[in-house]
Amino acid sequence: MSIKEKVEEIQTNLPKNVTLIAVSKTRTLDEIKEVYNAGIRIFGENKVQELIDKIENADFEAEWHLIGHLQTNKVKYIAGKVELIHSLDSIKLLNEIEKVYSKKSLTAKVLIQINIGEEESKTGINLSELESIVQASEDCKNVKVMGLMAVIPQGNKAECRYYFSKMNKIFLELKERKFNNIEMKYLSMGMTNDYKYAVSEGSNMVRIGEGIFGKRFYNIK
Ligand SMILES: *Cc1c(COP(=O)(O)O)cnc(C)c1O
């Protein structure tokens, strides 16, 4: 299947309210342009340097999202360049984003990343830390929380659905409660192998890499 056909197939599988993000990490700008030409306007990257290089060299207008872990010392490089940060995972990072964006009179839109499987190997906050990061977000002037993000543990269909539905429950509970400065609009979950389960459990933002671009090889650059 061509990239255009893959994009079209995914789009027919997605309800209208679900935002599709093409995850372009490790891909060249030529490859990304091909996906752009197939109609995609939002791209997700997981590394700050790679993201900046692509934004600066792209000859097309797209919306860029940071979906990978963000180190506090790199916030200054992305301020004003990304539409949404999916990976708010500590109060320390929240405070740094607030500081950097405030200096530039900008507002950062962020999602709180939850390590829903409590896996050692993954970033994201544990559920026990959610309340405190939500409270800290209420006091921010230059950071606006727009929802939640998760990367779930690998597993079979039932396991995937379990974690997605657990995330959706948390999302809906937070949405019910009213907070200053927090709008529970996006639930970012679902990747190539599990996005259909994610959507049926309430996801409204999916991040798809290999399903669009084909298999990723990390060793060649
Ligand atoms: C790489 C990545 C994806 C996309 O994964 P695929 O399996 O290629 O669809 C989604 N989310 C995050 C956070 C990623 O790092």
Core attributes:
single chain; 221 residues; alpha/beta; TIM Barrel; eight-stranded parallel β-sheet; 8 strands; 39% helix; binds pyridoxal-5'-phosphate
Ends distance: 24 Å
**Structural domain tally:** 1
The CATH topology is TIM Barrel
Provide the helix percentage.
25-40%
Bound compounds, each kind once, are: pyridoxal-5'-phosphate
Shape: globular
Q: In terms of structural class, how would the helical and strand content be classed?
A: alpha/beta
Pick out the low-confidence regions: none
CATH superfamily: Alanine racemase
Radius of gyration: 17 Å
Please give the CATH class. Alpha Beta
Structural description of this entry:
The chain has 221 residues and is an alpha/beta fold. It has a single domain (3-212), classed as Alanine racemase (TIM Barrel). It has helices at residues 3-13, 29-37, 48-57, 75-78, 91-103, 130-138, 157-176, 195-200, 210-213, and strands spanning 19-23, 42-45, 63-66, 84-88, 108-114, 143-150, 182-188, 205-208. It has an eight-stranded parallel β-sheet with strand order 7-6-5-4-3-2-1-8. Helix 4 links the parallel strand 3 (63-66) and strand 4. The longest helix has 20 residues, at 157-176. The chain is globular. The two termini are 24 Å apart. It binds pyridoxal-5'-phosphate. Residues 23, 25, 46, 67-68, 151, 191-192, 207-211 line the site of pyridoxal-5'-phosphate.
Q: What is the secondary structure topology, with strand pairs?
A:
Elements: H1 3-13, E1 19-23, H2 29-37, E2 42-45, H3 48-57, E3 63-66, H4 75-78, E4 84-88, H5 91-103, E5 108-114, H6 130-138, E6 143-150, H7 157-176, E7 182-188, H8 195-200, E8 205-208, H9 210-213
Parallel strand pairs: 1-2, 1-8, 2-3, 3-4, 4-5, 5-6, 6-7
The chain binds pyridoxal-5'-phosphate.
